[in-house]
Amino acid sequence: VQLQASGGGLVQTGGSLRLSCAASGRTFSSYAMGWFRQVPGKEREYVAAINWSGGSTYYTDSVKGRFTISRDNAKNTVYLQMNSLSPEDTAVYYCAVASAWGGEYEYWGQGTLVTVSS
Question: In this structure, are strands 112-117 and 9-12 parallel, antiparallel, or unpaired?
């Protein structure tokens, strides 16, 4: 089972990026998928999540109204559209998969770096 995250990069304050996470090795259409981020020296932060159907989502307060999580089960891919980025969003972003909504995340991607310049 592999999760491949991509789409990170350098962007100016106020800019946008879209992260993608492609899953392989198993069909994840019935799984919840989430995004986390981590800054060196700080705890990992749970950013957003989406259930198997897309009918339920979660966002941490700091990204509400700016980030949108979505998924394409046919492509086994989850996306994180990030708008109005600020330097506080700079981090390594990780995608992960949980077998149940609200459950433990069992599989993790390698991370993609997002850097927002001021």
Answer: parallel
